[in-house]
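Recap for those who missed Tuesday's class. We walked through two folding examples back to back. For each one, the amino acid string is listed first and its predicted structure tokens come directly after. Nothing is annotated here on purpose, so try labeling regions yourself before you check the end of the notes.
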Amino acid sequence: MSTASIPASSQRLVSLDAFRGITIAGMVLVNNPGSWEHIYWPLEHATWSGWTPTDLVFPFFVFIVGVSIPLAFAKRVEQGGSQRDLYLKIIKRTLIIFAIGLFLNGFPYFSLAELRIPGVLQRLAVCYFFASIIFLNTKVRTQIAIAIALLIFYWVLV
């Protein structure tokens, strides 16, 4: 048996890919529930005082982005990748995700008066940007402190 026929082991985290796929399937389901007049309750957003499975889609995507950042950048940082190149990659990816979100929010009519700037992908782009910058510029202790401070700030705000 030749070694050329054996596939190289993938460096991807299969569980994260599976979770991403399930989350995308959930997103498609809640965005297309069939008849908008007769929606099964888990496919609707909850009132302010509760939650449904639909309300978990966005937090799941934020979690996926957060887990993906160290996986994507850790190897480059260890290999001594240029900080400039990493920042350019972060800015480029942020702008692409933000632009795709604007495009999808405007499609198919592209009315500037009805364009929703704080859409889901735009928010994910902003989360990705700040989380990436924090990951590249801080140690784990500082990241934990920032996370705790943000949770306390959110708790006080709500």
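Example two. Treat it independently of the first, because the proteins are unrelated.
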Amino acid sequence: MAPGQKPFYIALGVIVVGGVVFLASRIMGNHDVSIPVNPAITVADTSGFRGYILGSASAPVEITEFGDFQCPQCANFDQVQLPDVKSRLIDPGKARLRFRDFPLDGVHSHTRIASHAAACADDQKHFWDVKEAMFRRQNDWAFSSNPMSVFTDIVKTAGLDVDAWNACMKSAKFAGRIQASQNEGNAVGVSSTPSFVIGGRIHENMGSDEMVKLVDSIIAAAAAPAPAANGAKKKPAGGL
């Protein structure tokens, strides 16, 4: 080794070791988040919370979506169909959307932690923009060994307090809420995602045109006059 090269190699070694330590800390730090499956559900998990609501409370029709953040069809609905549904139904006040988590744990390994990441974003009033970003970047995290680095980048970009969000994630405080949402879906017969409950019926993987047509028909039916009771006599023309 040339006399002048020793300081260079020492500095290079420090950089390499430092980089390895930094990378290890990022990986290990992200693995301390886990969300339990089938946790106990408390009153606090459901009290005053029906789901994430988009639209007016006075809208005549409610669309309940049961979705899985790791489901490709759910991402397609969110990115392609939902903007059209929003402009044609939600913004005009015809319908409101109620999103409910329905994690398909046996199929998607990261789905429950993704639901919790969005719930912790909702804690800071950023559910809808974080939800959109999570679906838009689904391919960035769905196939990774650990999705937390992508989720952290998403919430940071959305302007959240990342430390508070991390604390929320580590606490798993919304695990019961997510389970209650899944239980609701099971109770009404949901078996796949995305599924939509509209007018008391389940519709699977619905497109925006079909959804608009159904909502318009429900509104029209509600506005139509009730049919006359069977056996009612019509008043004869010309009076009594």
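Answers for example two:
Confidence is low (pLDDT under 50) at residues 7-30.
Residues 61 and 95 are 5 Å apart (CA to CA).
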